[in-house]
Write a structure and sequence with these properties.
Length: 142
């Protein structure tokens, strides 16, 4: 009752910029807040009113910039998580979403595991691997 709806122009601007903001986030606390915002938008707009999100996540996952890859992993997790609570369920869309994200996530996880052996001091790698595993876990549960 106390929530004011976001205007369509603000909603469009936020959807266009949330992934770049997530990638540019300087600290984890801001990343967590942006991920929560992404999750909220997805609960209302994904997949019907935001079909380009999976493509945006895939684009970030293919980046060579570690921050963009991290943002892509967060977006992939939220894409898969969104299907958990969709009413009515979109069972026809989920397999395609998982199939389009999974190969890239496996490649990223594999390269991160190899990198973590040679560079054990990187703090981002364990967090990103955790999110990738969480994405797979949710995909299996659904």
């Amino acid at each position: 009752p106390d929530h004011v709806p976001i205007t369509q122009s603000d909603r469009t601007a936020l959807k266009a910029n949330i992934l770049p903001l997530l990638a540019a986030s300087p600290i984890r606390s801001i990343t967590v807040q942006l991920a929560a915002t992404l999750k909220n938008f997805m609960a209302h707009d994904f997949p019907n009113r935001w079909s380009s999100l999976v493509d945006g996540a895939k684009r970030l996952l293919r980046s060579r910039d570690m921050r963009e890859v991290g943002a892509g992993i967060v977006a992939a997790l939220e894409c898969v998580s969104a299907f958990r609570y969709l009413i009515p369920p979109k069972a026809d869309i989920l397999p395609g979403t998982i199939a389009s994200l999974s190969p890239t996530l496996v490649t990223i996880a594999d390269s991160m595991l190899k990198a973590s052996l040679s560079q054990p001091t990187s703090q981002e790698i364990p967090a990103m691997l955790h999110l990738i595993l969480k994405t797979y876990k949710i995909a299996i549960i659904i």
